């Protein structure tokens, strides 16, 4: 069975502020039921669970997303997770190190889903901007950070290998949604109290480019400090 990660756009196109929505949620959901992304103009952080898309906006409010909602960048796949076991009492750094050691797939894409109890959770989101769009670095400086001493919910992460840095962010890119919708967004830090861990390795990356967007097609990425901007925005 082929396991496909469908990616629309690249993380690199966010760096210079190419933030026009170039795929609708309706179209994206034809390629999976689980995923993450961001809306046009960096309109919040997205997480898709069991086919239901949620947006965590710049104020931390969580709402479902309409089929007409558009995105410049998103990852999605059909969930066929395999159990990895129960993990307890790990910092985010310890958890990611453990996952890397256990999964042992450093040169391919994979996804990890953790459902459980978290503490010292720190997430972020960004308010939607309007054209002319801010660069990724500028947007990150205006991000809103949310914190919760405790939360029960789902952490959804995608791992990308180093050789694909730019198309995605090398390493783990994680979003979170609390079961009671009290907090969510792009994950900055956390400690795992206890959680059921699942993983799914992809043998195929289906990269979809926004070829109908002239700004993307004509942009010279050689002038952008991609590595620095991506790592600064994701940390």
TrEMBL record:
GO biological process terms held by the UniProt record: acetoin biosynthetic process
Reactions catalysed, as given in the entry: (2S)-2-acetolactate + H(+) = (R)-acetoin + CO2
Entries under Gene3D superfamilies matching the protein: Hypothetical protein, similar to alpha- acetolactate decarboxylase, domain 2
Keywords: Acetoin biosynthesis, Decarboxylase, Lyase
The keyword Transmembrane is assigned to this record: no
One MF term in the entry's GO annotations: acetolactate decarboxylase activity
Pathway: Polyol metabolism; (R,R)-butane-2,3-diol biosynthesis; (R,R)-butane-2,3-diol from pyruvate: step 2/3
Pfam family, any one: AAL_decarboxy
TM annotation in the entry: none
EC number: 4.1.1.5
Origin: domain of life: Bacteria
Family: Belongs to the alpha-acetolactate decarboxylase family.
NCBIfam families the record matches: acetolac_decarb
Protein name as it appears in the record: Alpha-acetolactate decarboxylase
Gene transcribed to yield this protein: aldB
């Amino acid at each position: 069975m082929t396991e496909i990660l469908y990616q629309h756009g690249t993380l690199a196109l966010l760096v210079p502020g190419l933030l026009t929505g170039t795929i609708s949620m309706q179209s994206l959901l034809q390629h999976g039921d689980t995923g993450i992304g961001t809306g046009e103009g960096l309109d919040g952080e997205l997480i898709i669970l069991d086919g239901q898309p949620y947006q965590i906006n710049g104020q931390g409010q969580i709402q479902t997303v309409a089929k007409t909602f558009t995105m410049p960048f998103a990852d999605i796949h059909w969930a066929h997770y395999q159990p990895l076991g129960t993990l307890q009492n790990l910092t985010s750094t310890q958890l990611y190190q453990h996952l890397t050691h256990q999964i042992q797939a450093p040169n391919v894409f994979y996804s990890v889903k953790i459902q459980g109890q978290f503490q010292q959770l720190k997430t972020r989101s960004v308010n939607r901007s309007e054209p002319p769009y801010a660069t990724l670095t500028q947007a990150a400086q205006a991000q809103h950070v949310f914190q919760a001493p405790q939360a029960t919910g789902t952490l959804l992460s995608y791992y990308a290998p180093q050789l694909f840095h730019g198309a995605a962010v090398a390493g783990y890119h994680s979003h979170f949604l609390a079961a009671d919708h009290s907090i969510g967004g792009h994950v900055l830090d956390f400690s795992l109290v206890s959680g059921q861990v699942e993983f799914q390795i992809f043998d195929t990356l289906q990269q979809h480019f926004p070829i109908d967007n002239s700004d993307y097609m004509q942009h010279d990425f050689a002038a952008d400090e991609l590595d620095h901007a991506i790592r600064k925005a994701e940390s």
